[in-house]
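check this one:
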Amino acid sequence: MACQYTLEQPETPMQLAMQRFGYLGNSDVIRHWFQRGWQMRDADAQNCFEPFILTWIALNAWGECVTGEERDQIWVRALARDKSLNQVFSDYLNGAVQQPAADRFRSRWPIPLVQAWRRHDPLQPNTNSPQDRARFFAEHKIPFEPACSLQHFDRGEQIPLDWEHFLPATYRVRCNLFHGEKSPYDPVDAEIVCASFQMLVGFMDRLGHFSCTRPNTFVGPLAAT
């Protein structure tokens, strides 16, 4: 079920063109990047930065391919709102193995744009609770993901643990990491990167597009596009 706050946006969800990936000349290169990340799926927290980057490169290339969009914010939003991907992610979460990493990652939401936060040093939230962090970020106009976090908290709700909220949060981790705002020597940074990586690489493996041996698991309209 789509987030009610996302539904307030009038934009129509994009139809993903999955068949494009099959015709892509460098699809094997994309699978290669994913396989390198997958091989390190059991890395400890301090060693998850490299496999996260490798896995994201594969997702980035695939996302641009199936959406036809090069701008990160557009293809990320298109993937996050796709009903079939949300269903695959929901099925993926039903596995007990994934739940600990999923819960650890959600406990760190919302994820701020650290570069913007640094401009407000030494200001800090009153507490490190997700609710206080969201209110602090909103008050100081620090971008954060999921962007609807505060709306959920104000309604007394948890942020839904689904693909629609997971992918934007993971994209924010990606931005912080690529811009040098995450350190493997910081336990919190390492935990955030590790938990998001473990969830992302497992989900991508389940999709089947990225594995040389695993069949495509999409069913229904998504597989037929």
Summary: DSSP finds twelve helices and two strands in the chain. The beta strands are 111-112, 144-145. The first strand starts at residue 111 and ends at 112. Residues 29-104+162-224 form one domain.
